[in-house]
Amino acid sequence: MQASRxxxxxxxxxxxxxxxxxxxxxxxxxxxxxxxxxxLIKGPSETPYEGGxxxxxxxxxxQYPLQPPQVRFLTKIFHxxxxxxxxxxxxxxxKNAWSPAWTLQSVCRAIxxxxxxxxxxxxxxxxxxxxxxxxxxxxxxxxAKMYTRLAAxxxxx
Length: 157
Hints:
four-stranded antiparallel β-sheet; single chain; globular; 4 helices; peroxisome biogenesis; ubl conjugation pathway
């Protein structure tokens, strides 16, 4: 547990130092628990998520970095690799392809890349995956844009 705590403090210092280095990611550690983090990530440009800001919740195990963090979307998102109700994310690096070289920041980058390049063949959201697998890209994009507008964009007024 000491090693994981030390690693998380190191990542925390790195995030503080590089706040402006990656404007698409804002990682924040819970004030009272180094094992709980949240992130705000910007939807990638030229995707249906562009213009949206999505909140992620990180639950870091005591065996970190030997085990991956549990990450889920708190913001509703229409994406084949994200469970619509729970926000669970299907991403290999969060499961069997995890490496201690990954950081919370790099996990955020991987999630942004997944948003831009959905894997319709391993869907957690079958409706979304089926639209893409059947070739209805337009239908998928309009649903994803609609949910981005409803859940991930600030209301004006």
